[in-house]
Amino acid sequence: MPGPTHDDQHDGGPFIPGRPGPKPPPVEEPTEPREPLPPKKDQSGPEVYTATGEHLDADPTVRAQKGSRLTNAQGTRLYDTDHSLKAGERGPVLLQDHHLREKITHFDHERIPERVVHARGAAAHGVFRGYGTASSLSKAAFLGKDVETPVFVRFSTVLGNRGSADTVRDTRGFATKFYTSEGVFDLVGNNIPVFFIQDAIKFPDVIHAGKPHPDREIPQAQSAHDTFWDFVSLHTEATHHTLWNMSDRGIPRSYRTMEGFGIHTFRLVDAEGGTTLVKFHWKPKLGVHSMMWEEAQITSGVDPDFHRRDLADAIEAGAFPEWELGIQTFPDTPEQTFEGIDLLDPTKIVPEEWAPVQPIGLMALTANPSNYFAETEQVAFHVGHLVPGIDITDDPLLAGRLFSYIDTQITRLGGPNFAQLPINRTHAPVNDMLRDGMHQTGVHSGVAPYQPNSLDGGCPFFAGAGEGAYVEAPVTVPQASKVRAAPASFADHTSHPRRFYLSLSAVEREHVIAAYTFELSKCYEDAIKQRNLRVLADIDPGLCAGVAAGLGLPAPEPSAPLADVEPSPALSQLGHTWPTDGRVIGIIADENSDLAALSSLRSTVHDSGMVPLVIAPHGGELTGNGGPVLAQRTFANARSVEFDAVLIAGAPGMGDDAYGARDVKAAQSAGGGNVDPRVLLLVSEVYRHAKALGAWGGGADVLAAAGCPQGGAGIVVSDDPQAVLAQVTELLGAHRVWDRFPPGETVAS
Ligand code: HDD
């Protein structure tokens, strides 16, 4: 139903006291889709059902907005909500104004506690389609061939609060709710395959260490402070996760280019009760890509919502992000190890070369939420939301999570009935015996919510043989004394981080060294820096020496012989070619550019699934030679971090605005000639961040003025814009121009 309009409010209505004057003029709304986005695909979310299995629209009581007239919460129409009830226009406000009180009271209670971790997030609806390849291992219906299941996925950072920046260095949450025909299955994972701790009882401790210092509450959304580095150096089981955080994985380019991991080992159960141990992996179709640290820092300032915007824009443009779900499988032996790796230890991974990730389904995110609070904020994940065919293992980290997730929702969502919120409702029929409690929206019938009963006809009945969830896999629990202790295999804290480091390319290792150096340099206590160097010495002497040099401290010797491990090439982000869908190409132009050629170039970029953004001296249209061409960005609001590659159409001159004009002198004295200094900054950053650059028709002069070497790696100059674009697109397949990092800077290990 279309929303209310001004006409609605005034049509035929009587004169309303307090409502000011004449009918306002109709508001002119744009009718064309915004450039450069193509028309929206259908963005309606998945069908939503009530707790009793009825379609949401069939239940008028749960729809928040019906009818076109403004009402109070009881549905009584209001003629004014802009003025308090007063004794005369200049007199005191009357206590009897219950409408004022209702409005303000509701506002006072609009906020709920943010998540204690993963507070900052963004989400989307989508669909998962099973390949059927897991059906021999799991009886879960949603894994069947071509079975389509609605999903809701929430991505998040861990440490920052709800208003923090997206591009901080941190682990990212990757939580997926599958609304399967057999109930909800939640896969609550991260973009890093290991965790800081091995036992859930340490979770409050590690989070206290990572959160801002309790005295001044700084720094926000950062691990670069004393308590974090104090914790991880005193708890060396955290080294593996910390190393991943300090790698490029800690600063993803986009949620769309992140892997996801279930981390724990789970147990699949087939129709005959046979079991297999598995680890879940999400593999992004666009590849795994990261930002450079300087980009991430700039982005935190110029666009703190970068990841949230990127996800929403891609979906709105119809470039639906996709991930394949895969599993590594291991025999379910009593030892629960694979090639000597303890599968119950969440700080360890099994290299993909040893146990390949086998694809079992495809997920596409196809619709943005229509209301952030109702969906993204109120969604409640729980690792205990399992369906028949997927079971847990005895990983002690998972055990604590099974308690924590349901518990936290009671504080966050105000009571035990959060499963009735629309976003959390299962799509399977519900007939539980849970009753009453805060915010109960179900109107239960019957008198006997217990089983067995003789008063409600015995209803509800138990599931038939083989149908139910929570049919525990027949695992033998060893006879043992009660202990507060970890198994001996949990004590290896060095071999897995060492394998990860050795698996990285030279430039990725440099990034790790730079990240450790940056973070530790922010610590005040030298003892903490030195203790962390001692941890690094046992991982890799080259890594330790690099960080020590950056900190100006001596590099300690390893405390024990280094672990003898083989690298796992799958862990490096380099050396692959990826699709370029959704990549953003900035095109710098002005009135003097060949605008006809620019128009046709934009179409080519668009048709190949990428996003062309013209960057001009001013907003609106460029109307020169062959125009008009609409500008999507200006020299004043474009920053390099937004673009995956930049093309220069001619030799754009100065911007028309005051800032550009004022800085003419600065540009000229810096050797930039008549090139706008903001263009020089943009191009030089793009070059420094190892992104592809292309130019034609005088654009080479801009490259030179920005300090980009002629003929340098990833710099394409030609008279033919389409030829430039073709080469730049090819370069984009590798994400960055890695050759721009000089060889020989390899860090020895
Ligand atoms: Fe957790 C939220 C992922 C260990 C306790 N966790 C939360 C979210 C993700 C993860 C993605 C955000 C869900 C959302 O978007 O709403 N957590 C993990 C992973 C872990 C992990 C991958 C280790 C493998 N978590 C973990 C432990 C505990 C918790 C050991 C407690 C003992 N996590 C929580 C929580 C949160 C949460 C406090 C906060 C908000 C929420 O649950 O709903 O219960």
Automatic annotation (TrEMBL):
Record domain Catalase core: where: 71-459
Species this protein is from: Streptomyces reniochalinae
Residue numbers spanned by region Disordered: 1-84
Cofactor: heme
Catalytic activity: 2 H2O2 = O2 + 2 H2O
Known function: Decomposes hydrogen peroxide into water and oxygen; serves to protect cells from the toxic effects of hydrogen peroxide.
Family, as annotated: Belongs to the catalase family. HPII subfamily.
Chain sites annotated for binding heme: R115, R154, F203, R401, Y405, R412
Basic and acidic residues bias (residue ranges): 1-11, 31-44
Family annotation (Gene3D superfamilies): 1.20.1370.20, 3.40.50.880, Catalase core domain
Catalytic residue positions: H118, N190
Sorted UniProt keywords: Heme, Hydrogen peroxide, Iron, Metal-binding, Oxidoreductase, Peroxidase
GO molecular function, one term: metal ion binding
Protein name in UniProt: Catalase
Gene Ontology biological-process annotations: hydrogen peroxide catabolic process; response to oxidative stress
One Gene Ontology term, aspect cellular component: cytosol
Enzyme Commission (EC) number: 1.11.1.6
